[in-house]
Amino acid sequence: xxxxxxxxxxxxxxxxxxxxxxxxxxxxxxxxxxxxxxxxxxxxxxxxxxxxxxxxxxxxxxxxxxxxxxxxxxxxxxxxxxxxxxxxxxxxxxxxxxxxxxxxxxx
Amino acid sequence: xxxxxxxxxxxxxxxxxxxxxxxxxxxxxxxxxxxxxxxxxxxxxxxxxxxxxxxxxxxxxxxxxxxxxxxxxxxxxxxxxxxxxxxxxxxxxxxxxxxxxxxxxxxxxxxxxxxxxxxxxxxxxxxxxxxxxxxxxxxxxxxxxxxxxxxxxxxxxxxxxxxxxxxxxxxxxxxxxxxxxxxxxxxxxxxxxxxxxxxxxxxxxxxxxxxxxxxxxxxxxxxxxxxxxxxxxxxxxxxxxxxxxxxxxxxxxxxxxxxxxxxxxxxxxxxxxxxxxxxxxxxxxxxxxxxxxxxxxxxxxxxxxxxxxxxxxxxxxxxxxxxxxxxxxxxxxxxxxxxxxxxxxxxxxxxxxxxxxxxxxxxxxxxxxxxxxxxxxxxxxxxxxxxxxxxxxxxxxxxxxxxxxxxxxxxxxxxxxxxxxxxxxxxxxxxxxxxxxxxxxxxxxxxxxxxxxxxxxxxxxxxxxxxxxxxxxxxxxxxxxxxxxxxxxxxxxxxxxxxxxxxxxxxxxxxxxxxxxxxxxxxxxxxxxxxxxxxxxxxxxxxxxxxxxxxxxxxxxxxxxxxxxxxxxxxxxxxxxxxxxxxxxxxxxxxxxxxxxxxxxxxxxxxxxxxxxxxxxxxxxxxxxxxxxxxxxx
Amino acid sequence: xxxxxxxxxxxxxxxxxxxxxxxxxxxxxxxxxxxxxxxxxxxxxxxxxxxxxxxxxxxxxxxxxxxxxxxxxxxxxxxxxxxxxxxxxxxxxxxxxxxxxxxxxxxxxxxxxxxxxxxxxxxxxxxxxxxxxxxxxxxxxxxxxxxxxxxxxxxxxxxxxxxxxxxxxxxxxxxxxxxxxxxxxxxxxxxxxxxxxxxxxxxxxxxxxxxxxxxxxxxxxxxxxxxxxxxxxxxxxxxxxxxxxxxxxxxxxxxxxxxxxxxxxxxxxxxxxxxxxxxxxxxxxxxxxxxxxxxxxxxxxxxxxxxxxxxxxxxxxxxxxxxxxxxxxxxxxxxxxxxxxxxxxxxxxxxxxxxxxxxxxxxxxxxxxxxxxxxxxxxxxxxxxxxxxxxxxxxxxxxxxxxxxxxxxxxxxxxxxxxxxxxxxxxxxxxxxxxxxxxxxxxxxxxxxxxxxxxxxxxxxxxxxxxxxxxxxxxxxxxxxxxxxxxx
Amino acid sequence: xxxxxxxxxxxxxxxxxxxxxxxxxxxxxxxxxxxxxxxxxxxxxxxxxxxxxxxxxxxxxxxxxxxxxxxxxxxxxxxxxxxxxxxxxxxxxxxxxxxxxxxxxxxxxxxxxxxxxxxxxxxxxxxxxxxxxxxxxxxxxxxxxxxxxxxxxxxxxxxxxxxxxxxxxxxxxxxxxxxxxxxxxxxxxxxxxxxxxxxxxxxxxxxxxxxxxxxxxxxxxxxxxxxxxxxxxxxxxxxxxxxxxxxxxxxxxxxxxxxxxxxxxxxxxxxxxxxxxxxxxxxxxxxxxxxxxxxxxxxxxxxxxxxxxxxxxxxxxxxxxxxxxxxxxxxxxxxxxxxxxxxxxxxxxxxxxxxxxxxxxxxxxxxxxxxxxxxxxxxxxxxxxxxxxxxxxxxxxxxxxxxxxxxxxxxxxxxxxxxxxxxxxxxxxxxxxxxxxxxxxxxxxxxxxxxxx
Lengths: 107, 634, 488, 453
Prior knowledge:
The structure holds four protein chains of four kinds.
Chain A: H1 9-29, H2 33-58, H3 64-94
Helix pairs in contact in A: 1-2, 2-3
Chain B: H1 6-18, H2 23-28, H3 30-51, E1 61-71, E2 74-82, H4 84-107, H5 114-132, H6 137-155, H7 162-193, H8 198-204, H9 209-226, H10 235-238, H11 244-253, H12 258-265, H13 267-273, H14 275-295, H15 301-321, H16 325-353, H17 364-367, H18 369-383, H19 389-403, H20 407-432, H21 446-461, H22 466-473, H23 482-504, H24 512-518, H25 520-529, H26 531-606, H27 611-632
Antiparallel strand pairs in B: 1-2
Chain D: H1 8-22, H2 30-51, E1 54-57, E2 62-64, H3 66-87, H4 94-113, H5 117-135, H6 142-173, H7 188-205, H8 214-221, H9 224-230, H10 233-248, H11 254-274, H12 280-300, H13 305-327, H14 337-340, H15 342-356, H16 362-376, H17 380-406, H18 422-437
Antiparallel strand pairs in D: 1-2
């Protein structure tokens, strides 16, 4: 790969994988629920990147990936909204959004 | 011959009528039982008479036949067949049975459960008659087992007492040990022949020696249980816990002789084997001698007779083992009469003396002349003194042994004869002579005496019917050969004399201990006076007593001990098994259940409640699958 | 009607179960149960009367059921199922009469008894595997409740153990059924049609193992038997009677109906092992029976021993052996039924089942004592009573068979002696002797109770004396099975 | 337009959902809304049956074959049953619950017919988002919120993994359509990874191990009335989707291996984990994991019988949770149930036996179908585990029965007995009747055809 050359499918996929992994790492390691939500958003964007970029290589005319990405973004937005609402409700109850405070249910 | 079917049927019906009724009715209906056996006796006489003219040449006649099962191509039938042997046996059984039942009316009249007693006697009579009239081994076996049940019921008649209860169980179980052998014999027989019928098994089938030996030994084992042969004899002395007349019928005259009858019937198989005959001879000879020795040290009148029965049955096995089927049967018949006579006499004695211990008896002769005479006749027959029946049949057995050159067996038989005579004398003199130790002795009722007199009369005369009987059964019974007869009589006389010397000579029983304590010096003199007694005691009686006692200990400690010990061991094993069952077998399953619960707890432990742990586990699993795919290479 | 006789016998109790549950009163429920079981017994008698011995499968009914998997509604009786069906009808009626005084939830109780009857009758007439399995499992639920609700102190443990054990076995049987169905040589769920399909030997071995687990738990064969004593000890009398009388027989019936004809080569190959287990069951059951202090547990272990004879006969695979196996199945149902009923009746009066606490029954209660002694002697195999017939024939068949090593037959024969040991110790300690404290003052059996026992006594005698009264139905089928399937 | 006629059931469900959501002033209030929804869902179910199979619509994105038919019928039917119960339940804000249930049902019904990644994704999210809300229904309860957040986070994570898998699948094959076997079969290791990601998301929807962790915690936190629905209807739809997707991506060894491993883990973890539980919701969560294992056993064998099993298992599962919603969620709460409500207690017997798989209950036929399919595919070892585990399952299901029937010393608290609406009894009765009577109508389930003659 030379700098400046047009990126291939593999490069996009690798970038997406890195993004996804970063998001995943965040989701697994952050103590704060809001941070976890942000990490999940990062993972969602990795997916979107994949979809949008790969369309170019497999079926540029149909734009399937773009459509898919749009749907995905809309849904993600809704879901994150829902998640934030949940976190807010929890904050009202417990006055904290640390995940460690949420280990009551187990076994 | 259709009426033959009634011979076992009448007592059976009598049982069927009596058994289900309430006690009071049952007791009231005792005459039904007596009437049934009397009628059977009449019919048996008729059947015997009808068979007599042709004797052994007459064909066996089937009086009754009912097929009760079809299995694997074979028909199993219930048949009543009359041939000379079965006609004779039926006659003996009904005759003794009648005598015992009549006697029992008097002997048992105070018993609350007399009706049940008669019901059991009836069932026994029916079973024994079914056995002797059978023409196949299966029917014989079935009747054999039912007899065992009756024996059990009658031994345990006084079941509220622990002794009879234990004795009845011991009897049933010990004989059943033999029965397992019998049953296995039937299995082997069926596998070889495909039938149980006498005709097929005994005459039509060509036996291979090995198979014959297996079947014969197994049947012999069964017979040894029933006929109380060494080492399965231990139950019979205990069985004396039952009512005496029942002992007379079952444990002296008939049931215990069924083993002899079985071996006699199965003679062709034994002959095809050869080995089995030798085993029979050895078993019989040992039993004859050991039984006699043990009889000589018993104090209980009935136990003396019980060991005597064991010994006499041993004689019969000796005869069979030497190939003398007819001699064995002959002794069976005479023994049935004189031994039942002795038992009935013992019953009278026990009633009169209120004890079974002969040390507490004495002087009965003066007050009970009829009993004494009848018992004496029986005793002489047992000792083998002519002209009593026992002499003739025992002589015939000895003759067979001589002819077959079985000299070792002959020697043992003679030794047994000596011992027999000795204990007969001991019994007789202890009981009937000497000072009376019981008050208010009086003669028994007529319904008890009459059967005894009849049996005594038969005992006195039946010996002379030997040759005719031999003719009837198909094998010559000659008059006694002078040489053998002299030997036999000599031995008997010696035994009687020895017995008289020890037990009959003195008229007063001395109890030396108080004297010894009070007059120490005088005692020495007295003992000097009794110098001969001491000599005999020390050099004849005591060693003999020690030997016999040692044998008794052996019997109790070793053989009986093996039986009892086996029982105890079995109990221990059962308990251990029970433990094993709960802990190991069941435990394995409960363990599995526990394992489920434990694994469940493990699963719970994974569920820690932390979201990120869950996520880590999930991705871990995904990574694992990915690694697996890498390794496998898609 | 005659063409739907079997359907009636199976499903009349189902209607009865609903009716009993919805009955307005306990008395009505009881009367309904009696009427229904009476009708079923009458139908069964009709069936026996109309049955033609030796004419194969009769009263066959077939209808479509679940075509996707080829399951059919397929019923029929032959000489082996007929006696079991009749016994089931009889014991159900007797169980109802014996439970006359049930006071706790009587409506539910009788409804469950009727439901149990559906399963029991169904198993013996079902000729389709799915139907068979349905009836097989249907039995579990009412029995579970009968034990768990009306049972003794440890009923929870005992009932769930019963349920799980038998479920454990039956799921493996299910695997076996599916395997037969999926195999190219199979392809049907028709039990009769699968016979003699010539499955490959290797496959047969595995299928046999699956079926063996299913049936052996039910029988039960050592070492799968430990549920039995627990279940029996805790179960109410009627449940014990049906459990020992019918439910155990379902296992051995399965061996005769399924493994012998369908998996003949595996049956042959496994025969020595099965015979060994049978012999061990016989001796082991007898040993444990001897060691028991609880009368009911003793009878329960004796069942393990007796069922060993059934297994021995089945392992033999000869005409005599199979006939003997069925004869033991029948007579054990009758005799053990009697024993359990008597133990229950004694328990109702003395409130103890401990052998050491009960003695002298024959003095205090001659009828109860006499019948208990009678049942004991029948159980120990006294000739002339039905117990002897089957055990003797099983031994005979096993000795004749080339598949069963002679040593195991000898061991089994010793079991006959051991049976005498434990049964006589019962007679000696319980029936005979002076009445103990618990026994003193109790009343003898009532007319109703005697009425329950009399049919069983009569059957014991009739079958014991006239073997063909039972064997004329069984022997032709047994001969056919031995010839065609096992080839001996 | 005629093509869209097959969407009539979905339309009915939407109408019901919207009516419940917006018609605040309906006479009778919440109750009427739920009953209306129930009626509409029932009509939807009937119309699914009436329409039968049809050709795909939306350019092939939505299929209307037998799988879709059976799954939609079951989802709509179960929703109708649930709403019937809900209409009489002693709960607050029933109207919202009804609306969310109907939306989730809509998502489920679409999921069952989706054979395009995009359609599937949207359907899944449409089905899942109302479920989050339902599970967090008791907004004031910290435990509920905790469970709900866990559900949300774990569900999101797996959804994203699935979506990532989808994007890779699309990138590797150039299509999003999986309308025939192997239509979406990517090549190479990356393809296998993609398939694993995609399937993992659906496994999580079925709460199959090892993606099951959300289930016990989320269920235990949520009200039983919500769990009843969330644990049943969506799983049927998920099974249908998984069946399609697995067929579509059938890439070499991946499917059998992955399914087999997940099935094994689910059966073991589910059944063993259920054993020590004292909370019925948690117990049923583990039991659900176990049943998903059986479903995967059949799906891994490439058989549609898994769908039949999912349907068969959902019915009693729903009813048992409804009983828990009424009688309490601790095992001991059920003590003396047979005195209070004998009919319900006996119905429980049938329901739990169906879950164990004992004939003549329908559960047995489900097990028959699953074991048959797996044996046919030569997965004998897995079947043996399944069989053993079904015995284990009897152990914990009977633990539920024990207090209900055999609780010692429970007073007949007559005054404490609540009057229940007829609908609650009716819903449980219908479910029980289905478990008992469905065997007679099994031939209607076309997906139960894996057992070939």
